[in-house]
Amino acid sequence: MEIPISRIQAAASEIMHRAAIDIPEDYRTGIEAARKTETGALPCFVLKAMVDNWDAATQDRRPMCADSGLPRYYVKMGNNARLESGFVGVERALRIATAKATHDIPLRPNRVHPLWRTDHNNNVGINAPEIEWSFEPDADWIEITTVHKGGLFGTDYRMLFPGDGIDGIKRFVLDGLIAYGKRGLACQPAIVGIGIGGSKDTCMQLGKQAACLRVVGDRHPDEKIAELEDELKELGNSIGMGAMGYVGSSMVVDCHIEVGYTHTGGMPVSIHTFCLSSRRCTARIYADGRIEYRTNPEWFTPYMRREDVEWQTEALA
């Protein structure tokens, strides 16, 4: 049975609304935990104002932040799913949903041509919105996640060398967080995502996905990476900065790391901050038209992180 394209568009429109207005419960829980440990007067004021703003947004059904960032999509395809109109139909449905949501919610139309500053007033244009794809075996559904992530600051990249080691990663992350806090570039407290490895472009993708597609409290299945996540979170909250860069201890709500095999001569690292309006929502659409909504994207499945060496298996067959 084919998944109707009309249901995909309806789901995309709905998650755009939910992401813009309702804060994910895991992030809210993280902020409530930060309020219990933060001692700075100004950061405490900011944290309370954040929670009050979320409550008002939910009650009034208005966007929680005036800056809607750059809405984007992450699409996970079940290997057994069949789509009406195929992948091109999905892409078109997501573009239509973006334009419609920009008008209906409304969202601020942030997308402009980089050179001519042409603005279509709907967050749609050349290569916009971004759509990233992944796949899942033994599934017959399509899953769509929207993330409203800022597109200006709070992101950095550095090519380290293997000899820089874990200490080099820590130094780079702390340098970035201090710079963001001093210059007001990240709207913290933030979920910090770190990508390690891959080529430069995949390193940046991994870091953004780590920030935007994992929930507060989630830990990497590799125990040593999980330990590094905890350590970097603690380090980030020990630099003397709190909410919005004021003196305090609530810089980082959580830290997530994702890795990819890289060139033997390098160790690329990226850092991304998912700001205090951590906007995401996921819809899973089944062939019978059912739609399930949630705020945990479950993007990093065991299949996504697999480390098997398939050519060896094929050679032995």
From TrEMBL:
Its EC number is 4.2.1.2. InterPro entries: Class-I_Fumarase/Tartrate_DH, Fe-S_hydro-lyase_TtdA-typ_cat. Keywords: 4Fe-4S, Iron, Iron-sulfur, Lyase, Metal-binding. Residues 11-283 form the Fe-S hydro-lyase tartrate dehydratase alpha-type catalytic domain. Pfam families: Fumerase (PF05681). One of its GO terms (molecular function) is fumarate hydratase activity. It comes from the Bacteria. The keyword 4Fe-4S applies. Belongs to the class-I fumarase family. This is Fumarate hydratase. It comes from Alcaligenes endophyticus.
